[in-house]
Structures are given as structure tokens and as C-alpha cells.
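Hi R.,

Here's the chain you asked about this morning:
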Amino acid sequence: MGCRQRLNKSFKNAPVLPLSPVNNYVLFSDCHRGNGTHNDNFLRNEHLYIAALRYYYQRGFTYIELGDGDELWENQSMEPIKEIHSDVFGLLSQFYQEKRLYMIYGNHDMVKKYPSFSKRKCGSYFCTTHQCTRPLFPGITFYPAIILRDPGSGKSLYLTHGHQASLMNSTLWPINRFLVRYVWKPLEQVGILDPTSAAKNYTTKERSETKLVSWAKSYNRTLVTGHTHRPMMCTETSPYLNTGSCVHPYCVTCIEVRGCTLTLVKWYMDAHDNGSLYVEREELADDKKGCP
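And the predicted structure, written out as C-alpha cells:
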């Protein structure tokens, strides 16, 4: 089964959510929430992510995570991830309680596709602030893909993680997980990056994006993914977008969907003239030039 067949399979029974002027969504991907150690690349941007979540929660957005939310290749257990990032999960649970949260699984959290895992590991979390167990995502389903569709115009956005572009990250993911957990994770500590990672290897990144763009053009569909960590807005000639990630060195990126308008956004730290720091939201690009 090739990339095209894997993507088609992901979207075959994907849930369809309304795309309309009254429905606002924010698309995040590749948070890679870890266990708080030096391998936890999310930790340095957690304050930016929390600021962004509060902004979108207060403005009525629905949160959609496009996979690799939790780093479950390097880490064998979900429990320390939930504990160290208790404040994050508390905010996400508020979205879920109001039916404003949807989750897609990626290659690094592929185990979430199994209902037994989500039932055991995602039903509750320990709130470190109040020192008690609270509901997290009881009864949640993690999807391979989601479609946003405007029934009036017929315009649709096809959302998935994007790991389907790679055999090792889709069909053979257990092998790749073993290599990351026991080979590349220790080597990363001494500065040797995983050459198979679409996020860390430029050639692998280009190869994955070429396949994803090809699928989008072949079916004339607007495709939104993560996986490669490279933020990208669609153009008049390419119907492909990428949310980027939450593990950039100094920022997190996401895509806002306000009605049928898409905006690529960056959240980062800036300073006032008096030296005090604050979190800034910057619009990097939008679809005014025309997504297909």
C-alpha cells in the first residue's frame, strides 16, 4: 500500500465537521508533550502553548490536534506526561467538556488509535494544582483524519497528520518506534539526529511533502497536515498546508480557521520597552491569494 492508498484509507470514514462563518477552529500539531526531562522538546514552549490555548478557549474556538500530541515513542508511559503537563491537560479537558476538542493520532502517538489505550490512559489525569484526579477525555475517540466541510459551497479541508507519506512511519511504525526509543533517543543526547525523521532530516521532509502535495493536487483537495514541522500556507498552485509544530526553538505555530478563512499564526515571546516580557500572536500568512 502506497502513500495515496494510505491517505485514502484514512479519509474513508473520517468524521465531517461543519465549515461555516459561525464555526472557528484552531489546528495544532506535533506538540510532542514529554515527561519533563531534557528530551522533552515541548517543555520550553509550554508557556506559549498555554497562552495560545487560553486565547482560543476564551474566543470560542474548537481545538483540533493533528497528531503527535504526546511523545509516546521516546516515552513508554502516558502517566508522567500527564503529570508534568497537568496545566495543559486541564485546559484541554475544558475544551473537551464543552465538545470543542477533536484529536487525530500521528505516528508518535499511534497507540491512541486503540480504544483500549484511550480508555485506560486518557479518561482522567492527576491535577497537580488541586492534588486530585480529574476527568480528562472520558470516552474520546482518536481519529486517523477529520474533514471540515461547508455544505453550501462544497469547500472542504482534509485534516490528517501526514505520516502516511512514509512507509516507516505508517505501516512499519512499531519498528521505527523501537529505533527511536532505543537507538536515536540516546544518540540525540550527544548531538546525533535521527536521519529517518521528517522533522529533523531535510531530504526526508522534502520527500514527504512532495507526496502530500501530489495527493492534494491529484484529488483537488485542500490538505492540512503536520508531521514535517515546517509551517506552510497554501498557494494558488498548491492546495497543501502545514501547521508547523509546538517544538520550534522559540515559538509555536498553528492554523486558525475562521469561517472559510485560514491563517497561519506564530506565538512567541517579545519584550516591552521597559524590558517586561509578554506573549505575542503574529499572523504569518493567510489564504487571501486563494486556496483551491
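DSSP finds seven helices and 14 strands in the chain.

Let me know if you need anything else.
M.
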